[in-house]
Amino acid sequence: MIYLNGKFMPIEEAFVPVLDRGFIFGDGIYEVIPVYSRKPFRLAEHLMRLQHSLDGIRLKNPFSNEEWRNLLEQVIINNDGEDQYIYLHITRGVAKRDHAFPANVPPTIFIMSNPLLQPSEELLKSGASAVTANDNRWIRCDVKAISLLPNVLLRQLAVDVQALETILIRNGFLTEGSASNIFIVKDKILLAPPKSNLMLPGITYDVVLELAAANQIPHEIREIHEIEIRIADEILLTSSTKEIMPITLLDNKPVGDGKPGEFFRRLHALYQEYKATHMRGHTTDRLTS
Ligand code: PLP
Predict the structure, then answer these.
(1) What is the pLDDT of residue 282?
(2) Catalytic residue (one of 144, 188, 259, 275)
(3) Block means of pLDDT (10 residues each) for the chain, length 289 residues?
(4) Mind giving me the DSSP string for 89-114?
(5) How far is the CA of 125 from the centre of ligand 1 (A)?
């Protein structure tokens, strides 16, 4: 069951008018929230990022955090699966086509949830392949905008050569993936590009850095030059739906020794452990140790 503008209904019965500004202009934002054991993961952080995206497009948040919590609880109850991922989408509503913001138009609010499937063991064992491309998106990549045409075209470059992801480079430096954040490992240090307007501040990115800090894994947040990506010992991809994945082939060349490395294994295990204790158990405590 999906949620659309105040009502739950089967997705087949959900329609929006063609003049919706999401359809006409891509004028809206979205969030993707993983759900483990029917509990949303890092909901406060996702709601904070949602607010940041809404502020970025000057759209009023239609709900308080408490209202979001209650609504998302209903979404989870109304859908199958212990593990799900919620897709939440808000547009500037339906109005006569005009670039300028319409006055007094209610936003369109759409939420769906689907089963969350873990990346396959096989892929985690072999690692995935990626290609690189010039990051030609707009310069507000910190806003999770629904207008994803550049991301779609960039991701297709990977799909065209049976790769998983396209790693983006802007002015010689790593930004992120077309739908993920990217870390590299060099000389036994985990390196992460700094958050800026040029990348989406990933919730999984934050968790990985917290896990590194809490477990004495050497790490540094700094600009990463394209050359460093090409000579990295490991490349890691993170996102809410893919969690942590090793990239073992980049532009058809092996990354390091071409196998998932020790940083991947360690961080992947820590991530699973974190989920097991914080999501599968009954504590909502933040990471403390
Ligand atoms: N960067 C981009 C462009 C994304 O689309 C995503 C997620 O889909 C991410 C990064 C990772 O963010 P998160 O870890 O919050 O899923």
Answers:
(1) 52
(2) 144
(3) 98 98 98 97 98 98 98 98 97 98 98 96 97 98 98 98 98 98 98 98 98 98 98 98 98 98 98 93 45
(4) EEE--B-SS-SSPPSS-PPEEEEEEE
(5) 22
Both tokens of 281, joined, read 């158990």
Rounded to the nearest whole angstrom, what is the distance from the C-alpha of residue 182 to the centroid of ligand 1? 10
pTM: 0.96
Cα atoms in the 13 Å half-sphere on the side-chain side of 12 = 0
Ligand 1 nearest atom to the CA of residue 141, by list position: 3
Strands 128-134 and 165-170: parallel
Contact 86, 76 (CB under 8 A): yes
Residue 274: phi and psi, rounded to 5, are: -60, -45
Say what the pLDDT of residue 280 is. 80
Q: Return the structure tokens found at 99.
A: 């670039």
Whether 144 is catalytic is yes
pLDDT tens digits, one per residue of 23-44: 999 999 999 999 999 999 999 9
For residues 219 and 192, what is the distance between their CA atoms, to the nearest angstrom? Answer: 8
From residue 241, alpha-carbon distances to 33, 202, 288 in Å are 9, 12, 24
Cα separation, 53 vs 141, whole angstroms: 10
> Max alpha carbon distance in the chain (Å)?
58
Instruction: Tell me which amino acid residue 194 is.
Output: P
Calpha distance 142→145 (Å, rounded)? 9
Residue 276: predicted pLDDT: 93
Bridge partner list, 39: 36
Residue 144: strand, helix, or coil? coil
| 208-213-219 Cα angle (round to 5) | 80
As a whole number of angstroms, the distance between CA 8 and CA 227 comes to 50
Is the Cβ–Cβ distance between 110 and 9 less than 8 Å?
no
Parallel, antiparallel, or unpaired: how do β-strands 234-239 and 181-186 relate?
antiparallel
